[in-house]
Amino acid sequence: MNIYCIVNSNNQIITLFGGPQNPPTPTGYTEMADNDSRYTSYVAAQNLIATSNAQYQAAINGGIVLTSTGTPALNGTYSVTTTAQHNISGVMSGIANGLGLPGGGSTFQYQDMSGKLHAWSATAFPELARAVRDFVYNCDVTLTTIQAGGVATFPSNQVTIA
């Protein structure tokens, strides 16, 4: 089967269309066989992007499994989604700016992914924030490395804090 595409100045496919086209080969398009090395390289690259994106989403959606050696009551699986990151950043902003914790007490309730509430202090919560930040950062770097053609493995979601 032939496919139709637009190639860049390096003769690499940048846009792909199925065939047949009408007219047979529109102006600016290249017709090539589906076993052409440019096509097979393009498909492999697109598959790599799709696979690594799915692995990234699975890692993020899985959260972090946190173990606290000092306060086992904080143990749980915590979300690292964009919404969770925003919520954590808001609490951290309050701590950093001397506004205290949500609710004004010495601890506040923060929910893990199972819905269980955990009592976090202003001393312990930054450890969760750092764990989430570092996990997401490492996932981001891994995704970028893989999609740039490098070799990398998504990080473990097992995190230990004091």
Chain-wise SSE layout:
Elements: E1 2-7, E2 13-17, E3 30-33, H1 37-62, E4 64-68, E5 76-78, H2 82-96, E6 107-111, E7 117-121, H3 125-147, E8 158-161
Parallel strand pairs: 4-8
Antiparallel strand pairs: 1-2, 1-3, 4-5, 6-7
What this model shows, in words?
The chain has 162 residues and is of the alpha+beta class. The protein is 40% helix and 23% strand. It contains three helices and eight strands. The longest helix is centred in the N-terminal third of the chain and has 26 residues. It is elongated. The N and C termini lie far apart (60 Å). The mean pLDDT is 93.
Q: Globular, elongated, flat, extended or rod-shaped: what is the shape?
A: elongated
Number of helices: 3
Largest sheet: 3 strands, antiparallel
Low-confidence stretches: none
What is the N-to-C order of secondary-structure elements (H for helix, E for strand)?
Answer: EEEHEEHEEHE
Distance between the termini: 60 Å
Proportion of residues in helical segments: 25-40%
Structural class: alpha+beta
Q: How large a portion of the residues is in β-strands, by DSSP E?
A: 15-25%
Strand order of the largest sheet: 2-1-3
Number of strands: 8
Kindly provide the radius of gyration, computed on alpha-carbon positions and rounded to a whole number of angstroms: 24 Å
Mean pLDDT score:
93
